[in-house]
């Protein structure tokens, strides 16, 4: 762009600029007032600016840059993850938990998770052969969700959201299955392992009773309990979180309300013992098998145990030898005392002049036998 591009239009007979010279119109000084005429100061190109309040009749308005309007084609992994997160969490609610931010809402609801995909995630994290993964899951859950995502065709955020909702639902189911009837009395309406998940009326009654006692049973119904039992999810969560203090004792049970009448002593005396339950040799579902730790001691521990037992044996053997030597010395000391007493007795008798010659001969023989022994 040159200076010619900013030249004003040719003067006309009616233009008020006819009396203004070119040197006055284009000068190094800036205009004294902001009139509707346009003037440009001769300044460096990078410092030029339009000084009129009205648009220039010759200068075209600036067009938006096509390059700036186009989105950047270089999108790194961070931007891709951000787009994926915005797409997954659109119109959703983000809840920050101990396992990190969890998305809750329509973008990742339970209706988008079939039972088969849920089972894949639960077995991958809580299965009987997932001890190493579960230990890592307690320290770094994000790594486990990233590994489980390709198995289900979901993102790691969706897997984390689904698992977090399932964990919260299990806590409510666990508290419901451990609730007792009779206002805190553990002798009546106790739900045991033989609980009938097909009895809708009984489940509805127990849900009403648990809700009246202040328990959180939101989202629990007979259909959901059967689904968790049939797919083995309840057994999986029970094997990993069943003895967890956070789920085992969510509520403090008390007998503040009226309890059920106690049974008479005679009924307690004649009450038969419950029959021993029949234990199946093979579980119906592989998820019902609880993982057992292999308590195999290391070689170093076995060697140290053997050394310790060997040292104890040597100690008792030496102690027995010492005790035997002490007993022998005591026996010899006792025999010497008897020998000394017999000799002294014989010598005292020989001092008596009233004894006969035959008795003296016997006493001398006793002394000689003692000395020879």
Instruction: Give the class from helix and strand content and strand pairing.
Output: mainly alpha
Distinct helical segment count: 14
Poorly predicted regions are 14-29, 84-107, 180-191, 250-258, 262-268
For the biggest sheet, the summary is:
2 strands, antiparallel
Average pLDDT for all residues: 69
Distance between the termini: 144 Å
Strand content: under 5%
Major sheet strand order: 1-2
Specify the helix fraction band: 40-55%
H/E series = HHHEEHHHHHHHHHHH
Number of strands: 2
3D shape:
elongated
Q: Give the C-alpha Rg.
A: 51 Å
Question: Short summary of the structure?
Answer:
Residues 20-42 have a biased composition (Polar residues). 49% of the residues lie in helices and 3% in strands. The chain has helices at 22-25, 66-69, 77-88, 115-126, 131-139, 141-152, 156-177, 200-212, 222-230, 233-241, 245-248, 265-270, 299-350, 357-372; strands spanning 93-97, 100-104.
Task: Note down, in words, how this protein is organized.
With 373 residues, the chain is an all-alpha fold. Among the domains are: 1-53, no CATH class; 93-248, no CATH class; 332-373. The chain contains 14 helices and two strands. The chain has helices spanning 22-25, 66-69, 77-88, 115-126, 131-139, 141-152, 156-177, 200-212, 222-230, 233-241, 245-248, 265-270, 299-350, 357-372; strands at 93-97, 100-104. The chain has a two-stranded antiparallel sheet with strand order 1-2. A hairpin with a 2-residue loop joins strand 1 (93-97) and strand 2 (100-104). Helix 4 packs parallel to helix 10 and helix 13 packs antiparallel against helix 14 (357-372). The radius of gyration is 51 Å and the shape is elongated. The chain starts with 21 loop residues before the first helix and ends with a helix.
């Amino acid at each position: 762009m040159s200076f010619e591009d900013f030249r004003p239009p040719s003067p006309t007979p009616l233009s008020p600029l006819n009396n203004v010279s070119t040197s006055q119109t284009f000068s190094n000084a800036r205009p004294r007032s902001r009139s509707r005429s346009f003037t440009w100061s001769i300044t460096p190109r990078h410092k030029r600016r339009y000084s009129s309040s009205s648009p220039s009749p010759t200068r075209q308005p600036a067009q938006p840059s096509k390059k700036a309007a186009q989105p950047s084609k270089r999108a790194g992994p961070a931007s891709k993850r951000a787009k994926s997160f915005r797409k997954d969490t659109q119109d959703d609610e983000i809840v920050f938990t101990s396992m990190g931010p969890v998305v809750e809402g329509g973008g990742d609801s339970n209706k988008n998770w079939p039972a088969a995909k849920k089972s894949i995630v639960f077995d991958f994290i809580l299965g009987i052969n997932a001890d190493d993964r579960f230990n890592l899951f307690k320290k770094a859950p994000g790594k486990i969700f990233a590994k489980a995502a390709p198995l289900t065709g979901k993102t790691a955020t969706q897997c984390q959201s689904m698992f977090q909702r399932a964990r919260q639902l299990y806590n409510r189911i666990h508290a419901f299955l451990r609730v007792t009837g009779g206002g805190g009395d553990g002798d009546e309406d106790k739900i045991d392992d033989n609980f009938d998940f097909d009895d809708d009326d009984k489940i509805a009654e127990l849900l009403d009773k648990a809700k009246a006692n202040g328990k959180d049973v939101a989202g629990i119904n007979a259909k959901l309990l059967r689904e968790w039992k049939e797919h083995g999810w309840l057994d999986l969560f029970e094997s990993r979180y069943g003895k967890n203090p956070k789920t085992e004792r969510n509520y403090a049970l008390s007998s503040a309300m009226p309890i059920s009448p106690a049974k008479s002593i005679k009924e307690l005396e004649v009450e038969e013992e419950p029959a021993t339950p029949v234990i199946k040799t093979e579980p119906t579902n592989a998820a019902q098998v609880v993982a057992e730790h292999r308590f195999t001691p290391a070689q170093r521990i076995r060697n140290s145990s053997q050394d310790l037992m060997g040292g104890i044996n040597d100690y008792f053997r030496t102690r027995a030898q010492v005790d035997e030597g002490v007993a022998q010395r005591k026996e010899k000391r006792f025999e010497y005392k008897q020998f000394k007493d017999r000799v002294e007795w014989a010598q005292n008798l020989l001092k008596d002049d009233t004894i006969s010659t035959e008795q003296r001969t016997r006493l001398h023989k006793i002394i000689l036998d003692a000395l020879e022994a």
